[in-house]
Amino acid sequence: xxxxxxxxxxxxxxxxxxxxxxxxxxMLEKNPHIRQVLKPINxxxxxxxxxxxxxxxxxxxxxxxxxxxxxxxxxxxxRKRGIKEIxxxxxxxxxxxxxxxxxxxD
Length: 106
Fold this sequence. Notes:
Blueprint: E1 3-8, E2 13-18, H1 21-30, E3 34-37, H2 56-68, H3 73-78, H4 83-102
Antiparallel strand pairs: 1-2, 1-3
């Protein structure tokens, strides 16, 4: 059975009750001084770590997306790169930094 939160306008009292929806509607109809209070629900999702890990199928999908969009932030984070590509990117970054210090635009 669902749990409903109620508020009594006269006494300013709040409480929680377990009942069927038909019972809740009947009670609210008979007692106009009582109203239902909507509360957010708590949702707990998985947290990556010891108890939750991505399977290899999902890793493959992420890698294919990253390879299709290599210059995006997602692509830079998830795409497998070779040592040559990594070293080339590092050399480019060093050259850009050196040129910025000299005042040369990119």
